[in-house]
Structures are given as C-alpha cells and as structure tokens.
Amino acid sequence: MAEKTAEVTMDKLVSLCKRRGFVFQSSEIYGGLSSAWDYGPMGVELKKNIQNFWWKEMTQLHENIVGLDAAIMMHPRVWEASGHVANFSDPLVDCKECKNRFRADHIDLSAPCPVCGNSGTFTEPRQFNLMFQTHLGPVKDDKNIVYLRPETAQGIFVNFRNVVQTSRVKIPFGIAQVGKAFRNEIVTKNFIFRTCEFEQMEMQYFVKPGSDDEWFNYWRERRMGYYEKLGIRGDRLRWHQHGPDELAHYAKDAYDIEYLFPMGWQELEGVHNRTDFDLGRHQEFSGKDQTYLDEETRERYVPYVIETSAGLTRSVLMVLSDAYEEEQLEDGDLRTVMRFHPAVAPITVAILPLVKKDGIAELAREIEAELREDFNVFYDQSGAIGRRYRRQDEGGTPYCVTVDYDSKEDGTVTLRFRDSMEQVRVHRSELAARIRKEIKEYKRV
C-alpha cells in the first residue's frame, strides 16, 4: 500500500508545471512578464480538455442551451450600458518612498507601508479603471477608443435578439461561451489564479421574471454537481453567499463556489441572479427592443438572467491542485502522481515497449496507431519500465500499455492503472473498448 505524504504547496505545483511542460512564464528568456503565462504541450491539452468537458456539460447535455463566440472588441457603448465604464474600478494608493502600488481597500492606510515599513507615505486614494483601453484604426483619437473586454457576458447579451431569431429557442434557454477576457489587475498573484489575461466559461440562462429563484437554485445544484463529475474532491469545495456589501450592482443574489487552493479558499465560479439589468440597460442605451414575446400567452417581457461564470484558467489550477499527490511506496520510493480524471488528462494512454528489439517496438507502434484515432497517445521506449511508469504518473497519464514478448505470441498486453498501479492482461483487440469503459466508470481512488 502507498502512504500519502503532505498536501501540495504552490511551490511544488509551480515546479511540476515547469518541469512537465504544463505552464511556462511568459517571455521567460527576457526575464518574464509577471501577469502572463504560457501553456506548454501538457498544459494546452489539459486546458482544452477541461474546456471540452465544460462545453459538453453545458451545451450537448442541454437541448435548450446554444453556443456563441463573440468578438473581443465591442462597441464602447456596450461598456457604458453594462456599467463597466462607471463602476469597474479599484481605489489605489502609492507609497511615495518605495513606489509600490496597493489596493486601498486591501490595506490599512493608517499603518506603515507593508513593503518598506515607512509611515505616512501613502498618496490619496484614486480610482483606476481595470479595462484595457486601445484605439481602433490608424488615428489615435478619443472617437476611436475601444476596450479589450473585461468579461465575456456582454457579448452574449448584445446577441440575445440574434440568437432568438435564428435558433428558434424558447424561454427558458441559455447561451454558452468560452473566451478570453482582460483586466488590468493591480495585483497579479498565486501563479495562474489571478492574471491580466484569462479565459472564462460562461452561460447566461434567460428565464421568465418570477421564475428566476427556481432557476437560480436549479443552476446552483447543477454547477456543484459538475465538479463531482470532474472528479474534484467534495471536501475541497464549498458555497459562499454574497452579503449586501458584496453584491454587484446588477445582482439580486449571488453565490460563489470556492475551492481550497494551496493558498486557501478562493472563488472558482459564480452563480448570479442578474435580473433584467443587462438586457434592460442595452435596450435603453441602444434603443433596440430586447423584450421576448411568449407565443403561447402573447406576453412580452424583458427576461431575467441566471449566470454561471467559471474561470477556465482557474479551473486548470484547481484541477492541477486537486490532482497532485505524493505517495511513499512500500519499497521506499516517493511517487508523485497527478490524479486527473481520465477525460481531461493531457495524455490518455502511454505505449511502452518492454524492449526495443525482437520486433517488440514495431508491435508497440502498431498498437499506438490503433489507439491514436480515439485517444491522446504517447509513445516512450527510453529507460527502465519502472522509471517510465513514474514519468507517466507525474504527468497524470491514467493508463499505460506495456508490450512484451507475450504480446507477440498471444496478442495480449499489460494495461496498468495509474491510481492503483494494478496491472491486467488485455487482448489488443479489446484494448480501446476497455479504456473507454474505464474512463466512463472512473472513480478516484
């Protein structure tokens, strides 16, 4: 039996992500950019798989939720209507001695500077808008100001009429979107948790006013259930309800799903009752009708919106944090293992020929080709088989297939399971079906 050692720390996680090719510092050869990160060969597969897992959950499994991919740059009036121009800002102070900048609501302004220790050195608080501003066209003019979107939700709201008219959807229905967003965060910290450039997975669910509380509770239950399907440990998830001082200007009620990251409990996803604020404001600012006509009752109204908003990049950090384990084996070895759900693991199956000679490697290549059509496959013939197993464990590969001399004789291979390290013999003709079955029935050990 393996004995689990201490919990993951952020330092261990960052080290593994660099070592295994999950996440690299952006522009590292130039000293890096603290607010940006690049996803390596393993990280891009993990992020894509998590996105696909979410997309299937929110669209394929719901006949009344459709997808959208809105532009990053939008008409500047969109952000006036949404309240971002007026409200999307943080109060900032600077220390006149060490020149460091702080959120005024995150420090005690009557205390010494937390960096240099000097007292009475803070400037007066001033508001700083978090949207990145640029200009569209060759002339840098105030008339050409546009913003990099700070959220993906507004792209859904301004396309509400287009979707209703083209998709024949009826309320209640949802619009889902995954995309980049940009916020000029003053403090970027905790690895990929808070960055200036990030990706969101959002779904806006349009409902009849008066039914919003029912649908709000429905989506709270569905979204927490999603993380169980993803294989996330339930004792690391909890709800946090926004108090009166926390509610956004558009929200009637709001809950956050929080996860116990290495740095403590932090927001992972929000479920919000946005009422009719967004469509009402866009109707006001654009002059275009945003009401919905119920064909059965002939009633016309501005729909309420229930929002589910999750960070894709935060979800990557959550999955990495939740998967990481160190185990002390009976033989004294320390095993680092990433217990990803097989549906999101960067590599699903590793093909490992026991030796390179006597046609074993050639046979292994044949099996690799057979599986590559259905799975993300990795081939490795370098080093002792135990060492190769450990490499795959650390990368989170759930299944290893070892091809040996018996494989030439009877067509069977050894299928090894990452979590339990159990090994079984399976005929190569049944291998793909067995792996699909294991993925579907996966339960974390």
From TrEMBL:
Q: Which reaction does it catalyse?
A: tRNA(Gly) + glycine + ATP = glycyl-tRNA(Gly) + AMP + diphosphate
GO biological process, alphabetically ordered: diadenosine tetraphosphate biosynthetic process; glycyl-tRNA aminoacylation
Q: Which UniProt keywords are given for this protein, alphabetically ordered?
A: Aminoacyl-tRNA synthetase, ATP-binding, Cytoplasm, Ligase, Nucleotide-binding, Protein biosynthesis
Q: Which residues form a coiled coil?
A: none
Which superkingdom? Bacteria
What GO cellular-component annotations does this UniProt entry give?
cytoplasm; extracellular exosome; microvesicle
Cross-referenced SUPFAM superfamilies: Class II aaRS ABD-related, Class II aaRS and biotin synthetases
Q: Which GO terms describe its molecular function?
A: ATP binding; bis(5'-nucleosyl)-tetraphosphatase (asymmetrical) activity; glycine-tRNA ligase activity
Any idea where this protein resides?
Cytoplasm
Q: Mind telling me which CDD domains this protein's record contains?
A: GlyRS-like_core (cd00774), GlyRS_anticodon (cd00858)
Which E.C. number(s) belong to this protein?
6.1.1.14
Give the signal sequence positions: none
- Kindly list the positions annotated as binding substrate: 103, 151, 198-202, 307-311
User: In the UniProt record, does the keyword Transcription occur?
Assistant: no
- Keyword rRNA processing assigned to the entry: answer is no
Query: Where does the chain bind ATP?
Result: 183-185, 193-198, 267-268, 311-314
Q: Which InterPro entries match?
A: aa-tRNA-synt_IIb (IPR002314), aa-tRNA-synth_II (IPR006195), aa-tRNA-synth_II/BPL/LPL (IPR045864), Anticodon-bd (IPR004154), Anticodon-bd_dom_sf (IPR036621), Gly-tRNA_synthase/POLG2 (IPR027031), Gly_tRNA_ligase_bac (IPR022961), GlyRS-like_core (IPR033731)
Among PANTHER family, the record links this protein to: DNA POLYMERASE SUBUNIT GAMMA-2, MITOCHONDRIAL, GLYCYL-TRNA SYNTHETASE/DNA POLYMERASE SUBUNIT GAMMA-2
- Assembly description: Homodimer.
Q: What does this protein do?
A: Catalyzes the attachment of glycine to tRNA(Gly).
Q: Which family does it belong to?
A: Belongs to the class-II aminoacyl-tRNA synthetase family.
By its UniProt entry, which NCBIfam families does this protein fall under? glyS_dimeric (TIGR00389), PRK04173.1 (NF003211)
Q: What is this protein called?
A: Glycine--tRNA ligase
What gene does this protein come from?
A: glyQS
